[in-house]
Design a protein that fits this description.
- There is one protein chain.
- Helices cover 41% and strands 15% of the residues.
- By secondary structure, it is of the alpha/beta class.
- It is globular.
- It holds the Pfam family Complex1_51K.
- Belongs to the complex I 51 kDa subunit family.
- InterPro entries: NADH-UbQ_OxRdtase_51kDa_CS, Nuo51_FMN-bd, Nuo51_FMN-bd_sf, Nuop51_4Fe4S-bd, Nuop51_4Fe4S-bd_sf, Thioredoxin-like_sf.
Length: 520
């Protein structure tokens, strides 16, 4: 009987040597006359343990990591193929505390199945949601998604069911489903993990969305820096078409849905839905004025659903298990689960999927283990490069859309970047302004010009902070932020003030200010 060994081909694992480890395992097995079945799975999200090897045993999968290719001969000597003891042994994978305590709905298959095996996908509850949807009326599908409480996971948190219903009721043919897979926020990788580790989940979710609103064509607008995801998605789409899960006749139902991958333009602003649509049409990625909304006049001026990867990947479970099952996770108006990505100066970086309501304190210490440097955590940025910097006295805030808005922050895409007490938050505020200046599409003056003036102003503040700064500089910076916040066409300019103002609010000493001046 062959022994099954799992080594991730996730981009994060490949970056730290997973390919070399996989090759070393095959070479050592051949040298010793042992036959192994090597499965290249997705990552479990335990990135501090990558490259992670798992071995199928009678008790379950046993994990070893982080494994270097030079460790492989020693693993064979320790009989790791039968769960033998070794310094890199982590025990049963499912019993690793970091993983065991999670509530995995969207990521329940990632790292477990062969990403491109349809049989593996179906044997782990795949395509049950689509089967259910094929027996329902469009209004029933939309009602189920609405009842689940699912909100957009890309950052805006708009109720998905309301968006779908708007497209369903809109006049105009054809209609489109567009997946925003241009994952550009700092500290985020959950979209990529799904696309590389469970691509049929996204395909299934988009197909259900098409049935719900009457769309027969979908596009995945994929971040240009994700070549592995692109290859896997294209192969998965081809296999789904061959098996009748995409194409002119979905599983003999007479209904159709077609799907294509389109490589993104490489601009952060194209993560904004209207700039994305402009780019998808072959134009320069610039923000459109709203209204009209994309749900009414979207791709090629036709009604269009634009959702991000995690939003669409959440849909199959809702159709399969019912909206109440999904709604029972979370708190308040934030229902379901959120894939949280722990990055930056963190000891145990990786992905954690939990229901809304978990605190930053629990995430940073119970899961993340504190900083990698061993120094105190000074600040975390939640929600990407435009998210607020939160100090330690706000780590009790529950991960909830409304709670973060009340704290003048944003949950965004669920990325958390950690900084220890050596970080200079004035420089981080400048970085946010500089990022906006570089990534601005240039269409509106507050973002295009305001961000450039903001960089210049912060440069003056930083240069003079050791001399005793003129508080008029801070007043001018606040006024500039107010202009960006209220005058920008989209969230790029509109949210750039969040990190700047939060840095001023919570870390005034880094600007050469006393707290009273910062609040003035």
């Amino acid at each position: 009987m062959n022994i099954t060994v799992y080594v991730s081909r996730d981009s994060g694992a490949l970056a730290v040597g997973a390919e070399a480890v996989a090759n070393a395992i095959l070479a050592q097995a051949a040298e010793r006359g042992i036959t192994v079945d090597l499965v290249r799975n997705g990552s479990r999200g335990l990135y501090w343990l990558e490259p992670l090897i798992e071995v199928e045993t009678a008790e379950g999968r046993v994990a070893y990591g982080p494994v270097d290719r030079d460790d492989v001969p020693g693993l064979f000597e320790a009989d790791f193929l039968h769960g033998g003891a070794h310094p890199l042994a982590q025990g049963l994978t499912e019993e690793i505390p970091y993983l065991k305590a999670q509530q995995r709905l969207t990521f329940r298959r990632v790292g477990i199945t062969d990403p491109l095996s349809l049989d593996d996908y179906r044997s782990h509850e795949g395509y049950r949601g689509l089967t259910q949807a094929l027996s329902m009326m469009p209004t029933e599908i939309v009602a189920a998604v609405t009842e689940s409480g699912l909100r957009g996971r890309g950052g805006a948190a708009f109720p998905t069911g309301i968006k779908w219903n708007t497209v369903l009721q809109a006049v105009g043919e054809p209609k489109y489903i567009v997946c925003n897979a241009d994952e550009g926020d700092s500290g985020t990788f959950s979209d990529r993990m799904v696309m590389e580790g469970d691509p049929y989940l996204l395909i299934e979710g988009m197909t259900i969305a098409g049935l719900a609103v009457g769309a027969e064509q979908g596009y995945i607008y994929l971040r240009s820096e994700y070549p592995h995801a692109e290859a896997i998605l294209n192969e998965a789409i081809a296999r789904a078409e061959s098996a009748g899960y995409l194409g002119d006749d979905l599983r003999g139902s007479g209904k159709q849905f077609h799907l294509e991958v389109r490589r993104a333009a490489g601009a952060y602003v194209c993560g904004e839905e209207t700039a994305l649509l402009e780019s998808l049409e072959g134009k320069r990625g610039q923000v459109r004025a709203k209204p009209p909304l994309p749900a009414i006049h979207g791709l090629f001026q036709r009604p269009t659903v634009v959702n991000n990867v995690i939003s669409l990947a959440s849909v199959p479970a809702i159709l399969d298990k019912g909206p109440a099952f999904y709604r029972d996770f979370g708190m308040g108006r934030s229902r379901g689960t959120l894939p949280i990505q722990l990055t930056g100066n963190i000891r145990r970086g990786g992905l954690v999927e939990l229901g809304f309501g978990v605190s930053l304190e629990e995430l940073l210490y119970d899961y993340g283990g504190g900083t990698a440097s061993g120094r105190p955590i000074k600040a975390v940025q939640v929600g990407g490069p435009l998210g607020a910097y939160l100090p330690a006295d706000q780590f009790d805030i529950p991960l909830d859309y409304e709670a973060f808005i009340a704290a003048q922050g944003t949950v965004g895409h669920g990325g958390i970047v950690v900084f220890d007490d050596t970080a200079d938050m004035a420089h981080m505020a400048r970085h946010a302004m500089a990022f906006c200046a570089v990534e601005s599409c240039g269409k509106c003056t507050p973002c295009r010009i305001g961000s450039t003036r903001g960089v210049e102003l912060l440069d003056r503040i930083i240069a003079e902070r050791d001399k005793g700064i003129d508080s008029a500089q801070v007043t001018l910076l606040r006024e500039l932020c107010d202009t960006l916040l209220n005058g920008s066409l989209c969230a790029l300019g509109g949210m750039t003030p969040f990190p700047v103002l939060s840095a001023l609010e919570h870390f005034p000493a880094d600007f050469g200010l006393v707290a009273e001046t910062a609040h003035a």
